[in-house]
């Protein structure tokens, strides 16, 4: 499975961006992670087709929303009210397993496929 992210960029505090992740084939589980150099990777949001409601990290709840275009194997991440602490490289991930958690945080274990990442900068 190949994943291609797009939609990153630079915005001012309070602004919005919409990230897209296009998969080369259908995958039942997809997620967004982000990482700042030198810091631990953070799971931001996850969806499981036919599963429960999407997962959102506490740090983005109420501001970020996922949506999908299953006909195009595409996952979106709408990011509103962006803050400087949202600055990171955002990665799309995909797999076949339901999301799981380590220490209360979204684990990357169910997702063997990763995109190249897209930079989001908020200032």
Topology at a glance:
Layout: E1 3-6, E2 9-11, E3 17-23, E4 29-35, E5 42-48, E6 55-56, E7 64-69, E8 74-79, E9 88-95, E10 101-102, E11 105-106, E12 113-114, E13 118-122
Parallel strand pairs: 2-13
Antiparallel strand pairs: 1-3, 3-8, 4-5, 4-9, 5-6, 7-8, 9-12, 9-13, 10-11
If you had to describe this structure to a student in words, what would you say it looks like?
The N and C termini lie far apart (34 Å). Strands 2, 4, 5, 6, 9, 12 and 13 form a seven-stranded mixed sheet that branches. Strands 1-3-8-7 form a four-stranded antiparallel sheet, with no helix packed on it. The protein has a two-stranded antiparallel sheet with strand order 10-11. 0% of the residues lie in helices and 50% in strands. With 123 residues, it is mainly beta. It is built from no helices and 13 strands. Strand 5 and strand 6 (55-56) form a beta hairpin. The chain is globular. It has strands at 3-6, 9-11, 17-23, 29-35, 42-48, 55-56, 64-69, 74-79, 88-95, 101-102, 105-106, 113-114, 118-122.
| Multimerization status | single chain
Helix segment tally? 0
Number of strands: 13
Major pleated sheet: 7 strands, mixed
Given the C-alpha coordinates, what overall shape results? globular
Q: Approximately how much beta-strand content do the residues carry? A: over 45%
Percent of residues in helical segments? under 10%
State the distance separating the first and last CA atoms.
34 Å
Rg, nearest Å: 13 Å
Please identify the structural class as seen in this structure: mainly beta
Average pLDDT confidence is 94
H-E string: EEEEEEEEEEEEE
Low-confidence stretches: none
